[in-house]
Amino acid sequence: MTVMLDMPTLRPDTALAGAPAGTQKPLVVLVYPKVDHEKDYVYFWMPFSLLTIAKPLLEDGRFDVALFDGNQHDAAAWARFLDEHLDRAVAIGVSVMTGGGQISHALEMVRTAKERPGCPPVVFGGPHVAVLPEETARHELVDAVLAGPGQNSMLPFLESVLGRLRRADVPGLITRLPSGELLRGPVNPPRTGLLGAYPWHLLNVADYLRDDPTVASRTLNYVSSQGCVYLCRMCFELTYQRKYSAMQADVLLADVCDLHARFGINGVKFYDADWFVNLKRAVSFCEGLTERDLGLKWAASINPNDILKARRAKLGLLDKVAASGCSRLLMGVESGSDRVLADVVQKDVTRAQVLDVAREIADAGILGSYTFIVGFPGESEAEMEQTYSLIEELRGLAPTPETRVHLFAPYPGTPLYDEALAHGFIPPTDLEGWSRFDYYTSLTPWTSQATVDRAREQTQMRLAPAS
């Protein structure tokens, strides 16, 4: 048996996965810490990362899974959750992203768990771990990290916790040895293959329904793919090394229809990085939804190049999207300056093309929601003004689009992060420092308060309920 010298010792009653019939299976606790949103933010995150990890664990059949969502429950609820589940738990998995206060909340929750006797190993994963795994693994509250897709690595990690696999053989694993040195497992491949329907029974789905002002009165957030194929140099999706994985159209359609039947949803808001990467999948889903005529509204993100590709292929994309009930398309435009688009962002699109596709979206009767970023390294005041002039042009369309202007935030693992360092940005040096990283505020020394105020003024979103 492989001994976990640097991790909490498992209790005898939880150490065996192959328990006799009639006994409880070992329990895996998966935690999604709270995310602190900016003021007046009307949306919230759903723990899809945990659902994605839970699915292969449940399909394996040897483990039970319990999820805790810090966006839905407070510290007192976490204490009660530990009272109920900690005795059976063989591991606690925590998913964290950079910024938004999630790391800070994660550390508070883990500290509470570790104050209790018999706390099992705590393993961190998620986007932040993907780019700063060693730094995360060195924190005293972190027993191990899993870099890369958790659905590839969580089951092998549990095998190692149970003494059935060497830690050195766990994909993406980094953990501290008693000497303080780090032990590393093999590389965790970024590709995960096709995604399947989520194990919704692990959540109270009704808690996640909301009246979305741009979709419908009972809208559910949904993520149907991972990764992206584009190369925008400020985007965290680059850390996934462009390995795109998605649910097939028929699986996605069946799941959405099931959610409609069971929970009475009348809207779906896809939070994929780019829902339209696979145009054939998109068209197939739209045609299937139109055939079923459920009266369901939906929204998703799209890259301007998706529309340009669909035109060249003569797919009639936006007509099919509109006919299927799509009410809103979110597009990251980033800038109104062709130089910034080409040289800084590498968006592979021009200002003129952005206006062209935005008009096509409006002509289809779909609300366009366009996001921009100001304060890029080396961006001039004149180039920021070009962004604001583009926003004014877009607001002349009908329906009047939403616009949101973000401040540039240097994300580790992206090409523009290195440029930000060269321009004087000083990053945190440990996990505690990153726990205070707030991407809603000005983080760079070259961004003035006037730039911040202008960005806030130019953000115009629909905040009133849809009903």
Main CATH class of the largest domain: Alpha Beta
Give the mean pLDDT. 90
* Biggest sheet character: 7 strands, mixed
Q: Give the overall shape, derived from the CA principal axes.
A: globular
Q: Strand share of the residues?
A: 15-25%
GO molecular function: 4 iron, 4 sulfur cluster binding; catalytic activity; cobalamin binding; metal ion binding
Domain B12-binding: 25-168
Cofactor: [4Fe-4S] cluster
InterPro entries: BchE-like (IPR051198), Cobalamin-bd (IPR006158), Elp3/MiaA/NifB-like_rSAM (IPR006638), Methyltransferase_Class_B (IPR034466), rSAM (IPR007197), rSAM_sf (IPR058240)
What brief labels describe this structure?
467 residues, alpha/beta, Rossmann fold, pyruvate-formate lyase- activating enzyme, 2 domains, seven-stranded mixed β-sheet, 15 strands, 16% strand, globular
